[in-house]
Write a structure and sequence with these properties.
Elements: E1 2-3, H1 6-13, E2 17-22, E3 25-30, E4 36-40, H2 54-67, E5 74-81, E6 86-92, E7 97-98, H3 99-102, H4 109-125, E8 128-130, E9 138-140, E10 146-148, E11 154-156, H5 163-173, H6 177-184, H7 188-198, H8 202-216
Parallel strand pairs: 1-5
Antiparallel strand pairs: 2-3, 3-4, 4-6, 5-6, 7-9, 8-11, 9-10
Helix pairs in contact: 4-7, 5-8, 7-8
Organism: Pseudomonas atacamensis
Protein name: Toluene tolerance protein
Pfam families: Kdo (PF06293)
Length: 217
């Protein structure tokens, strides 16, 4: 992590478009070069962010995902910006549209549901536990591949996730009513579950899929 002074920060953000902000200030900026600057603040005086800043977690997670062959943003630098009491991650975004944006396009919804099921199975098999997983941070690229964005709240382990972690992850994924209806409404859930099942090793399929069906019904 590199500490930068205020003049350097101002030069970096010159001409930037504010994409997200709150009462405490800017959160996400699109910079003049097309790259992004995501700003993090430590919300409590004593927290894990003091020793392991969110900006660094974001950067570390991109490396872990890239090592697993999972598409994600490409980090350029990680900054500490004392003048605004923020840490920042400067990165090239993952091009494409989020699954949430694509929900309103009916032409290929069945294909997308199946693709999403297979993608989540891939994450789970590669040990990726994304607690904040939702349709707003899964992107379909122009090459018709899926990847992840907004990945500070993510952990990677060496082994595939346990069944209990997978079920917890699905519970997080489906906490938004609109997303749940799009994914599971009518017969849509069969398409999603079949995509997930086909991406699993055969030895895991039967018991896990039965538990998953019970959770989603």
């Amino acid at each position: 992590m590199q500490s930068i002074d205020h003049s350097t920060y101002e030069a970096l953000r010159k001409g930037a478009q504010v994409l997200e902000a709150d009462g405490s200030g800017d959160k996400v900026l699109r910079l003049a070069d097309g790259r992004m600057l995501k700003l993090f603040r430590r919300k409590r005086l004593l927290s894990s962010a003091l020793f392991f800043p969110y900006a660094q977690r974001f950067a570390n997670n991109t490396k872990a995902l890239q090592q697993r062959g999972i598409l994600c943003p490409n980090v350029v630098a990680v900054y500490r910006i004392p003048s605004i009491q923020r840490d920042g991650v400067y990165y090239a975004p993952l091009a494409g549209e989020t699954v949430r944006q694509l929900q309103g396009t009916p032409e290929e919804t069945e294909t997308l549901r199946s693709q999403l099921g297979a993608f989540i199975a891939q994450l789970h098999e590669k040990g990726v536990y994304f607690r904040s997983l939702h349709f707003g941070n899964v992107v379909q690229t122009p090459q018709n591949q899926l990847g992840l964005i907004d990945i500070a709240d993510l952990r990677c382990q060496r082994r595939a996730l346990s069944d209990s972690k997978r079920l917890r992850n699905f519970a997080h994924l489906l906490r938004y009513k609109q997303d749940r209806q799009w994914l599971l409404g009518s017969d849509a859930g069969r398409t999603f579950l079949e995509g997930y099942r086909q991406a699993l090793p055969s030895k895991r399929q039967a018991a896990l899929m039965e538990r998953l069906r019970l959770l989603l019904n």
